[in-house]
UniProtKB/TrEMBL annotation:
Gene3D superfamilies: Immunoglobulins. Signal peptide: none annotated. Pfam families: fn3. PROSITE patterns: FN3. This is FNDC7 protein. The gene is Fndc7. Residues 1-88, 89-175, 176-261, 262-346, 430-517 form the Fibronectin type-III domain. It comes from the Eukaryota.
Amino acid sequence: APDIPVIDQAYSKLSNSITVEWRAVPGATNYMLTAQDGDSLVETVVKNSPGTVTGLKPATLYRITVRSINSGGKSQPSPFRKVKTVLAAPILSVRSLSCDSIAVSWKAVHMAAGFSVSLMRSDGLGRMLKQNTTNTSLIFTNLDPGALYTIKAYAWNANGMPGDDFTYNQRTSPNAPVDVKVAFDSGALRAVVSWMPTEGAAAYSATVSSGLLKLRCNTSSASCMVPPLQCGSEYHVSVTAYNDAGPSEPTDAVSLKTIPCAPVNISIEEDEPGRLLVSWSSVTLGHYYVVFVKSDDGLEVHCNTSYTHCHFQSDCGFTYFISVFAYNKAGQSPLGDVFNYTTAPCCPSDFRAVFMSSDTVRVTWAPVRGADLYETRAAGGSGVVLCRDTATACTLSALQCSTPYNISVYSFSEARGSNTSCAPQYLTTAPCSPEIKNISKEGLSVISVQWQPNNEEATYVVTARGEAGLWHCTSTRNSCTLMDLPCGSAFSVSAVARSPAGQSFPSYSIPLETAPCCPNDLTLTQVTQSVTNISWSVGRGARTYVTTLGSAKGQAKCHTLQTSCLLGCITCGTNYTVSLRAISATGLTSSCTYQGYSSSACCPSGVKLYRLSNNGIRVFWRASDETINYKADLHGSKGNFSCTPSLGLSHCDITKIPCGDVYTVVVAPVTDKGPKLTLFSSFCPKKIYS
């Protein structure tokens, strides 16, 4: 085993340990330190000197020994040294009483005769403060607000030996913030509170109070937003700074008046036509009021007043949206209820009444603002006629003719009812329809029409309407005459009454037919000596025709649907009168007279032929009328030959006739028809001559 070490010195710097110094022992690899207090023993193995025994009790006397150790074993303990551990450190309880003071307290320490406490800013600024006391508490004052201080304290014994020290960092509470400002957001009913940051403050709390109501906002910055406030209230705003030492004193309260609440009990009425009165109840903190009135066409007006009512100009048929705001220095009150007020609809403009007939009037007007429905009323006669519609036109029917009426158009709206102040129009309905009593013929083209007058101060117009055109006559009495009506035409005759109020319905139509027209052209053609063909142009309106040829010797008559007719039993050489009757389908007749007609002259009788020579012939006949000339015609294949005797003779000769031929011989009268001679040879008998 190694040699026994020798302790040079042993001392205690900490209350739970003793440090030992010794001279090194050759061959020793470790050393065992032993501290003994009565029955209590604490051992510690160390490598070399110095060594420290820990886990000891403060202010306790220990016997300290050292033993050297190697692989051969342990040496004997060295001579002991008695060493007492120093006093335990006081356990501090520290708090900041205010922004410039710190209170330090501790419990009594065993064997302590006094205490030493020192304080200094942790950042090294300023001077260190130190106090010795036998008490267990003390207060440091006149400190910097919000500064971090390091506090060190230890106890000493009766010999003045200091014990363990105890270090504690404590910050003073912050100073109250300064330059507190309140910015009020009237739209959101919130307030932003701001201040100058104060040293050492870790957080801030802004308090907004009104009576029992308290609102807070906490922040680490130099501003915060207070929760929503109430309108029409006055608040007191203060700010407190905080750190781990506690709160500062609250700042002096700043007054905050919020915006006024929206006015209530709003009433709207038209105190007189064209003027709206808006009134409301006064509100707390309201300095003045602004009323906004916006019409449904987008136009907006406003009224600024310190009273609780306002007047506005209004127009008919408009809907007004009305809102009332209260104001003070904080701003405008929140939007309250928006009221709408609809004025009575306007009276219809461009009012026109036009008669569609004697008992029907069409009323039109321009649309007006605010009208949902229109009522048209016609009062007169024996009652009232009504028409209700959303359209801007109405037809009033079943009115009494020739009657004055009072016509009014009223506008209605669901919101405001009717506007019954609209001026009426006065008008008289058109005349009543006349009734035709009689139509009489006063001539070929003259018709007299009579009717029953049933209107006052009316002019009557009679119209004959047909394919041939229109014919009119006018009278203020009960009859008039239609002149120059064309023949062969059918008409519908009606009458109307006219007055400044309009025109009546036409009367019931009476049919009228004029006699058929006489044909313009009539032609007679003799077919044989006893048969004549008569033809004529169409007579307008005629259905059948009766033609007559009359003479002293008798007459020939024909009734036909056609425009021609063959008349027999015609006497030759006779002058006839020519007449025609045109008859309509209803039996109306027109008698027509034309130029006389003469039938062809009579053929001679007793015609005989005598040969004169080989190439000649004499023709004899017996004349029917000595005043008529005759002519003999000879027709053959080798030529045609003729002879005409002098007036009064009844024979003539034809010479130089080629022989060996067969000839036809005709003797016919010759009449003078103007510049031409007309031969009626076709009607007379023929003789054959070979």
